[in-house]
Amino acid sequence: MMKRFLICCTIVVATSGTGLTASIKNIDAKTQTIIIAEGDNRRDVVLKTDQQISVCLKGCFITMPNGDRVALDGDETVEINNGRANFR
User: Fold this and answer.
1) Which helix (H) or strand (E) holds 5?
2) Domain region containing 46
3) Looking at the 3D structure of the chain, how many domains does it have?
């Protein structure tokens, strides 16, 4: 009985550490560049047509190609179309 309990606890702890990530996909006909700011880290990311990435494990801000700034919690699905963010 105790062995089962320890196994269940181990599984819960192992899976609870996995955070959600936001998914961003470029559905534009051209390559788009976004800026991702997570805490003190800032990086430019180039997305080719139909390229998809996962970001923002702990939430972040994304600056879209059209200049819009979007806050993400980490569980969103975002598509870039005409340089704008569309949430799915």
Assistant:
1) helix 2-16
2) 20-87
3) 1
